[in-house]
Amino acid sequence: MKICIFGAASAHIDKIYIEKVEKLSEELAKRGHSLVFGAGATGLMGAAARGFKRGGGYIHGIIPEFFREEGVEVIYDECDKLTFTKNMSERKQKMEDDCDAFIITPGGIGTFEEFFEVLTLKQLGRHKKAIAIYNIENYYDGLEDFMKTVYERKFINFKCYEMYSYFDDADKLIEYLENYSPDATPWQKLKIGD
């Protein structure tokens, strides 16, 4: 399975996040999965790549050309395949198209945007891929509370709330991905009022 991992690019985060993402990624690689990611060498992007490399997995990095030209981010130099895109939108599109499942690790604005984009696309029936949130050190507890509020106030229905799952345990996250079966609910039923 090709797994897209979204996460922080920051090199200044606590090492516990780095260690857990490296360990998760190494285990995924050992199980025969491959990585699709944003090609960054630092933060949790770099951790995912190093873990997959250590586990012997295939790594496809996708990054906008201007990142290289303007030095926006250090690029992970051991990708098996490195794809340069014109912009961020094309980068996300290629990452989404080239994977079979998504893992959302702790991150900032870019990671939030990536999560909500793949969630929105799933709600609109553009894909039926698994979306797993790796809730390291309770990082996403606030997001989970917020999404419950969104559901309780009827901005989304319950089926929409079920389109992704939270995990604080890496083994359970992997088990979820490997045994994932798409919900048969028509996408039209995921919209309020339909």
Blueprint of the fold:
Elements (H helix, E strand, L loop, with lengths): L1 E5 L8 H16 L3 E4 L5 H12 L4 E6 H6 L10 E5 L2 H10 L3 E4 L4 H15 L6 E5 L6 H12 L5 H4 L3 E3 L2 H9 L16
Parallel strand pairs: 1-2, 1-5, 2-3, 3-4, 5-6, 6-7
Helix pairs in contact: 1-2
Description:
This protein has 194 residues and is α/β, with parallel strands linked by helices. It has eight helices and seven strands. It has helices spanning 15-30, 43-54, 65-70, 88-97, 109-123, 141-152, 158-161, 170-178, and strands at residues 2-6, 34-37, 59-64, 81-85, 101-104, 130-134, 165-167. A seven-stranded parallel sheet has the order 4-3-2-1-5-6-7, with helices on both faces.
Could you give a short description of this structure?
This protein has 194 residues and is an alpha/beta fold. The protein is 43% helix and 16% strand. It is globular and about 45 Å long.
Structure characteristics:
alpha/beta; seven-stranded parallel β-sheet; 194 residues; single chain
Number of helices: 8
Oligomer: single chain
Principal-axes geometry comes out as: globular
Give the SSE order as H and E letters: EHEHEHEHEHEHHEH
As a percent range, the share of strand residues is: 15-25%
Uncertain parts: none
Structural class: alpha/beta
Number of strands: 7
N-end to C-end Cα span: 33 Å
Overall residue-averaged pLDDT value? 94
The major sheet is characterized as: 7 strands, parallel
